[in-house]
Design a protein that fits this description.
It is found in: Membrane. The protein is 74% helix and 1% strand. By secondary structure, the protein is mostly helical. The two termini are 38 Å apart.
């Protein structure tokens, strides 16, 4: 999507429909049931919810073109993360507690982004342009912070002694939340102030689209972005009920809910990353992909940790050995892919194979 040209109808229609649906459901007190009517409601809900998420991302991109890189991709990432936190917290603290959902969703985001999305972007770019370039210094910053945060939050809980099992004690969780927020904050300062040039490839020239967006359009996009995010948060509860019902119907494993949430929140951002790769702007694809992984861990884990602590709910974070092996494989592969500043088709294909293994193991562990 672009800031140029008239605003597409879907950019304001879906947020309006989302707010209208929430008002109708609240006024009527409708509760989802497994029936023909429930199936129709689920389809309508998912269509409106997906449309509203895409609308939120569109308005983020409109604003992003005004403020330039890397602020634009950062804004897009933060918008998606707000949606993610709302969905995870609502489902975790719903009628059917899901203490593993935050872990499953964060791990799913890392696998989808670092293998599925990165692999697809590199593969598409390689097929069209043979090789694509990017800033190695920026990729290294992303990966160094991502590896540390992922290890602290998804692996360390399995090896702590204060509490048994894949959980942190309250004090440990508070410390990890604090360190995570501090480290992510320093990363943002590095990205936006200290080394902004690390995240803008030479071919982009570091320029945004400031001269092409009117002030009225900017204000309208900001308002509609806030409405879109609010509507997704309001509909998150109903979405959680539908996900639980579908999981029971198809006999899906517990990790299925985390995969669905991750796919929902990453789909519009993924479309933006793929479009950038098709335009030979792999740097933007990397900013979106790796930035979303960092934001997921750096913001979601502390937010969910605070919510579960305040409500005295359990929070399971440690991965099982199988997923731990996949995470380390992703780390190693990412270092090789982003180590030279040039990518090709083979790198993309290898990432997609690892992603296929992850999806298969969700259903056949």
């Amino acid at each position: 999507m672009s800031a140029h040209g008239p605003m597409p109808r879907s950019a304001w229609l879906f947020p309006a429909l989302a707010v209208l649906l929430f008002l109708i459901v609240t006024a009527t007190g409708y509760g989802f049931t497994v029936s023909v009517g429930g199936f129709v409601f689920a389809v309508v809900l998912l269509v409106i919810l997906f449309g509203t998420v895409f609308a939120a991302v569109h308005h983020s991109e409109v604003i992003a073109e005004r403020i330039g890189e890397p602020y634009g991709t950062l804004l897009l990432t933060l918008a998606v993360t707000i949606i993610e936190v709302a969905l995870i917290t609502t489902i975790m603290l719903g009628d059917k507690p899901a203490p593993e959902l935050a872990r499953d969703t964060v791990f799913a985001v890392v696998m989808i982004v670092c293998n599925g999305l990165v692999g697809l972007c590199v593969l598409i770019g390689g097929l069209r342009y043979r090789e694509q370039g990017f800033q190695v210094s920026g990729a290294n910053v992303y990966l160094s912070v991502l590896f540390v945060l992922a290890t602290m939050t998804l692996i360390m809980p399995n090896y702590t002694l204060t509490t048994p099992g894949p959980v942190f004690s309250a004090l440990q969780l508070g410390f990890v939340d604090l360190v995570t927020i501090v480290l992510y904050g320093v990363f943002l300062y590095t990205q936006m102030v200290l080394h902004r040039d690390y995240f803008v490839h030479e071919s982009e020239g570091g320029e945004g689209g400031a001269g092409h967006l009117s002030a009225n359009m900017l204000v309208l996009s900001i308002v509609l972005l806030l409405i879109s995010l609010g509507a997704v948060v309001l509909l998150a509860k109903k979405f959680s009920v539908v996900v639980d019902a579908v999981a029971v119907m198809i006999g899906a494993p517990p990790a299925f809910a985390g995969l669905v949430v991750a796919l929902l929140i990453l789909m519009p951002e993924g479309v933006s990353a793929i479009a950038a790769a098709r335009k030979n702007d792999l740097q933007k694809s990397i900013n979106l992909a790796l930035g979303s992984s960092l934001a997921t861990i750096g913001l979601t884990i502390p937010a969910v940790g605070i919510a579960t602590y305040a409500l005295d709910q359990p929070l399971v974070l440690g991965l099982n050995p199988q997923n731990t092996a996949l995470l380390f494989l992703t780390f190693l592969l990412s270092m090789l892919t982003f180590g030279t500043g040039r990518t090709n088709v083979l790198f993309g294909l290898v990432h997609m194979v690892v992603f296929a293994v992850y999806v298969f193991m969700v259903f056949v562990p």
